[in-house]
Specification:
Elements lengths: L2 E8 L2 E10 L2 E9 L1 H11 L13 E10 L5 E10 L2 E10 H12 L18
Antiparallel strand pairs: 1-2, 1-4, 2-3, 4-5, 5-6
């Protein structure tokens, strides 16, 4: 499952950092996203489905299931939120362009498929 690591704005442009694992190796990649994609990722990264104490880290993963939201331009998708050994799936709305990228990341079986993207080693997963 691709991990949603971060979403940020720089010089009026929006970016996401996604972590993927191939075999036993993990890498994080940065790519540009739309303003709507940025807002959706910021909402995802603020999900708190567990009773948490300050400073307890949660991780967010694209769970792979998705579908169209009726009478909307958005799609629904499941995000798995993990805290320690606990995990919960949460359904969220995302724009089509972001969903397309998340689906693509979930299909990568060789890092060579993502060589056109810069690696993002600044953010630990």
């Amino acid at each position: 499952m691709p991990e949603i690591v971060d979403a940020f704005e720089k010089d009026g442009q929006y970016f996401a950092i996604i972590g993927i694992q191939v075999s036993s190796e993990s890498k994080q990649f940065q790519f540009g996203i739309s303003a709507n994609g940025y807002r959706a990722l910021r909402k995802i990264l603020q999900l708190r489905p567990f009773d948490t104490m300050p400073g307890v880290k949660q991780r967010y993963f694209f769970a792979g299931s998705y579908g169209r939201i009726p009478a909307s331009s958005e799609f629904r998708t499941d995000i798995r939120v993990e805290q320690g050994r606990q995990g919960k799936k949460v359904e969220v709305g995302v724009p089509k362009d972001l969903l397309s990228n998340l689906v693509w990341f979930s299909t990568i079986r060789d890092f060579a498929e993502a060589t056109h993207l810069p690696e993002a080693n600044l953010h630990a997963s």
